Amino acid sequence: MQFQGTFSSQSTSTSRTHPRPKTNSLLGQTGGQSVSSLPERPDIRVVKRDGTLTPLDVSKIRKVAEWACQGLEVNLIALEAGLKTRLREGVTTREIQDNLIHCALEMCSPDEPDWRYVAGRLHIWSLWKDTLVRRGYQYGDYARTVNEKVCANQYDAKILIYSPDELQEAGSWINSDWDTDYDYAGAVLFSKRYLLPNELPQEAFLTCALLLASVEKPHNRLKVARQFYEAIAQRKISLATPILANLRVPRGSLASCFITTMEDNLESIFGEITNTARISKNGGGVGVNVSQIRATGSWVMNKPNASGGVIPWIKLLNDTAIAVNQG
């Protein structure tokens, strides 16, 4: 099935495959047709995301709302009823989308938890649409996305170890349905914390998978990359935050946590503090073994009770980690 990519009557069509049903749908259907509480309002004009004015097309709101509710134990009519009082002249399509999300969240309860997935899907739909407006396409041209982001210094140039044909083939693995598996909190956190500008979730997962497989032999890279991608995208495995956030960017890391040891001398102590700062700068987590530092009151340079123990050095490490924190 298809639905239009905005709520206006003159919009660019954006095709989306509906997510696979998970439970019995309660869409309030009669005779195979959706029963809607939204009245037709041809007198209202909306502002599209590109800034143009166009008459409100209520049928497109219905299509988006029905898509978001499909396969979930929620009542579509209740979602539309919560929205109808918020339609007005000059409302933006983004406001309509946000209002749908707020309506879904307001109806979320222990008895109806699926509303959080409705809100999550609506947030993802808005991300798709914003990306389409900003860069001119959604999914469908992964090789172009890679080249543009490498040129913008957003992707590590190591990704270009793959040929354009290989990148195009990898792009064909993308399944946008997997974007809709998140509830609202997960969708918002992922899009705000992990995605780069003008990047979509499956592009982030696929790029990480390709970089993870880049060390494989050339004839085996794509096979391994696809296994990585499908496992990551379907959440069969979870990447640590430093890897998911930093792997695909220049100077990214394949490791999320590092262990280092301080020896009992100033050169080693301050050398490891510097290393800690460098690791933190690139988003890594650090564990420091300070067991070799002499105890409080120990001799230093033939002077008794001169050592302050490990606490002063731990404070320096903590202050360093805070000063160079990358989130």
Explain what this protein looks like in three dimensions.
The chain has three domains: 3-133, no CATH class; 139-246, no CATH class; 257-323, b-12 dependent (class ii) ribonucleotide reductase, Chain A, Domain 2 (2-Layer Sandwich). By secondary structure, it is mainly α. The longest helix is centred in the middle third of the chain and has 21 residues, at 115-135. It has twelve helices and eight strands.
What's a quick, concise take on this entry?
This protein folds into 3 domains: 3-133, no CATH class; 139-246, no CATH class; 257-323, b-12 dependent (class ii) ribonucleotide reductase, Chain A, Domain 2.
Features:
mainly alpha; two-stranded antiparallel sheet; 12 helices; 8 strands; about 325 residues
